[in-house]
Amino acid sequence: MEKRGIGCTADVMVFALLISTAISILCAFSPADPRINSERYAESFARSTLLSFLNCTADQFGGFSYRLGGLGSGVNIPFIGDSLKRQLGHKTIAQLLAEDILLNMCLEAREVTLSPNREMDDKLRVFLKSVLDNTIDGRFGYRLRASAGPVDLGFTSFNFNLVVEDLSCARIQLCSETQLLSLPVSRAELTKITRNQHGINLPRGLKTELVIEVSLELWST
Amino acid sequence: MTLHVGEDLFSNVIAVSLLSLFITALVHSYHLYSLRQKDFDDFDLALDVAERLRGSILAVGDGLPGLIEISQCRLENFAKILAVQRIKMRVEIRTLDGKLLQYSGPGPDALSCYLSPATNVSLPVAVVCDNRGAKLCELVVHVWRD
């Protein structure tokens, strides 16, 4: 083979190598399916979902009810059992969260959760999971977190944390949207609740502006 | 340059074929890249339209964020504004199980679809019902260029 032929082939090989590099760069920077990887879409979706929770009642997801736990969940007397049941289908999802926070605050100093309405908390988690599964419909992995507090009383503090998630197929976190809600109770009502449930009187000068922080993280699947 | 029939010609044929193959692959990659980029731009446009509908055009004026009401009149006016920019849209309100509750605007015709495929975006929204309750639905917005 002539030297010139070998040289020509080598040139072409180098040129082909450059083209391969260009192809791989194009492939690497090619945007993926926007419905799966768009952070902007995920943010908008999460914001819409949280805003919907402010307005949609539990009724359209089959309703929500629980039994008051004041007498203990072991009580099984038929006529008392039904009278202890609270139907909350008319409440919005945000209102249900607020009620759960009020009824299931965790007392930190004693490192125990004083939850007179554990049943509500458990049922609400299942309910929220079903609502989110329906709304998100497998488009994203998700983690909903509702928290309040801590309300520092000096000798003790109250707080609340609720997490509902489905991250079974999640890969990358796309966004985290947060919404702040004010707890719909007056100071007098909050004092009454803490006294009745935990036996603690809130100090008079205490600023108890309890804010509920609801955040929704969406993950690509 | 003198071409020697035999090994020289053979090596040149191989080299040119290889080069053609790589250039074809490069053109194809660039075509795919452009398509993806266009998909992304169209999707952004559809998302802009959907956010605008949810946030201002269909929003209930009672200071209730996230709550929308369906108004054919407002949708038609917004469609006219988009049409000036040669953008067409179709809006659908679907239940979470996919049932079509209401729609506005015609779907894309075959020619438009061929020239510029429609992109759609769906967002969850709370829609005001007749009895003043809100129903969680999906706002589906199809957008395409004329």
Task: Give your account of this protein's structure.
The complex is a heterodimer of chains A (221) and B (146). Helix content of chain A is 43%, strand content 22%. Chain A is α+β, with helices and mostly antiparallel strands. Chain A has 2 domains: 30 residues; 187 residues, no CATH class. In chain A, the strands form 2 sheets. A 5-stranded antiparallel sheet of chain A has the order 3-5-4-7-6, covered by helices on one side. In chain A, helix 5 runs antiparallel to helix 6. With 146 residues, chain B is of the alpha+beta class. Chain B has one domain. Chain B is 48% helix and 26% strand. Chain B contains 3 helices and 5 strands; from the N terminus they run αβαββαββ. The longest helix of chain B is centred in the first third of the chain and has 51 residues. Chain B is elongated, with a radius of gyration of 25 Å. The mean pLDDT of chain B is 84. Classes of the chains: A alpha+beta (221), B alpha+beta (146). The interface between A and B is large, with 43 and 43 residues.
Record the SSE blueprint.
The complex is a heterodimer of chains A (221) and B (146).
Chain A: H1 3-29, H2 34-37, H3 39-55, E1 65-67, H4 78-83, E2 85-87, H5 93-103, E3 106-107, H6 118-136, E4 141-152, E5 157-166, E6 173-182, H7 187-198, E7 211-219
Antiparallel strand pairs in A: 1-2, 3-5, 4-5, 4-7, 6-7
Helix pairs in contact in A: 5-6
Chain B: H1 7-57, E1 67-68, H2 72-84, E2 87-95, E3 100-104, H3 110-115, E4 119-128, E5 134-145
Parallel strand pairs in B: 1-4
Antiparallel strand pairs in B: 2-3, 2-5, 4-5
